[in-house]
């Protein structure tokens, strides 16, 4: 699980570097800044999910009662990203923020497809 997360984190950092270059060198600053915001929160959500799945797995293996995977906290982080985009429309746009929030799921799917045969 940790190796998979590190691989996915690396891919997301590559995307973030591309978004940063796009923000710095194009006239689409709002779009790229929104993608950066959504992707950073998406990375945080991925990290949080991996951490909670590991705790969940340890609790199940030890026969202890397992807590939830933190759906509410992840939903709250996504709402925070949307609230920031709505509050500061001169810097952010809601559609690219939403696309950025979905980045980790896209990376997970691509990572699975690349490594399913290994």
Automatic annotation (TrEMBL):
Keyword set includes ATP-binding: no
Residues that span the membrane, as ranges: 12-28, 34-50, 71-88, 94-114
One cellular-component annotation, GO: plasma membrane
Keywords: Cell membrane, Membrane, Transmembrane, Transmembrane helix
UniProt xrefs under InterPro entries: ATP_synth_I, ATP_synth_I_Bacilli
Cellular location(s): Cell membrane
Membrane topology: Multi-pass membrane protein
Coiled coil stretches, renumbered: none
PANTHER family xrefs: ATP SYNTHASE PROTEIN I
Protein name: ATP synthase subunit I
Organism of origin: Anoxybacteroides rupiense
């Amino acid at each position: 699980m940790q190796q998979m997360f590190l691989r996915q984190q690396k891919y997301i950092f590559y995307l973030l570097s591309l978004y940063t270059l796009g923000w710095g060198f194009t006239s689409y600053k709002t779009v790229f800044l929104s993608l950066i915001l959504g992707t950073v929160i998406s990375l945080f959500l991925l990290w949080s999910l991996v951490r909670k799945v590991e705790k969940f797995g340890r609790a199940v293996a030890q026969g202890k009662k397992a807590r939830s995977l933190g759906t509410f906290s992840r939903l709250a982080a996504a709402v925070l990203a949307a609230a920031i985009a709505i509050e500061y429309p001169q810097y952010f746009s809601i559609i690219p923020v939403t696309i950025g929030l979905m980045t980790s799921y896209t990376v997970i799917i691509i990572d699975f497809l690349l490594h399913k045969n290994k």
